[in-house]
Amino acid sequence: MELTMIGAGYVGLVSGACFAEFGANVTCLDVDEAKIADLNKGEIPIYEPGLDELVKKNMEAGRLGFTTEFAPAVGKADLVFIAVGTPTRRGDGHADLRYVYAAAREIARHLDGYTVIVDKSTVPVGTARQVHRIIKEENPAAEFDVASNPEFLREGAAIGDFMRPDRVVIGVESARAEALLRELYRPINLIEAPIHVTNLESAELVKYASNAFLATKISFINEISTLCEKVGADVHDVAKGMGLDGRIGRKFLHTGPGYGGSCFPKDTLALVRIAQEHGASSRIVEAVIEVNAAQKARMVGKIRNALGGSEAGKTLAVLGLTFKPETDDMRDAPALSILPALTEKGAIIKAHDPEGMEEAAELLPEGISYCTSPYEALKDADAVVLLTEWNEYRGLDLEEVRSLMKGDVFIDLRNVYEPGQMRQAGFRYECIGRAG
To answer: Does residue 340 have a pLDDT over 60?
Structure first.
């Protein structure tokens, strides 16, 4: 089966490499010539565990290639996936679909024989029908169907999510398109992963509804953590007690400094806008967005209070910058809200992150120092702020940490450590929703 991915970013590259691993012949197309040149040299533009090996393996096997040319890539394809960015549009919160529609116009010009065009990008309800309209207008003679196949990839675990999915969602309007997509996903039948076939609108909405629900769980437990601090409860015990209920489940009931990343912030905002456009209520999702912003602001206050009411002139060792571990993604990371608020009031920041420092340096204020190891960041620090729970921060040598620091304040915004353990190690320990 011949397959073309339009867009060699996170979704396109991971999906393309995994489809090649399934046995398809995959061409990843991108208009960024520098990116394609790097990929053809085996240089991966993003950090995702295992992706470099998967790309190399399938390039060597001749099943995965990269190009900037639409004509050959689209003309030979049985399926063309649109996997371009849909960032939040400035000013109104809607998903920006300019890249999706531009891809549709280019695809239309180069179609040759029956082809299924598949929306892989996260797009608002009705986008697949707009793509169909654009292609039909550009090329009235084209023989094609449009389908929706949303992705559910977690950064840091994307390859496993693709190869062993909870489900595959396919929105189609013809038996022919469904048959092609079922054949493409046939390898997952071996693990009996369900393929859920719907109409176009339902498939488009599944992605937004799923992400909004997960974001709701995060914001809910973050709000409960505030109450825990007020009444003397332990948010870990509360979350565990909730999660043991099979109707609720334990996943995404982990308190922290607020959600970030490429999906939850923009997808919750987009869902609110979709609801507004169609005259539907979205009060729960609106509250989720407000709670998440408040949680990030609350973390600034928590850090400030732990420092005695002022961060001015204090040196803070910040461990972790990306929105989660096992990724270099800084999009909407809590660090982007928390650290500027601290530096504006005179804090001196020494930061470390295993993968995200290069991108962070482009997004955070000047004056932040980036260190080659967590222990370098800790030297002479008045306080440490654990902001992202990378594995290497979970087992810090606490005796060495204490000896390197000038102060004794340890602010754990991921609740990695136990309060009693930290007190015994000589720290004034602050965490979220627990007695410190």
So the answer is: yes
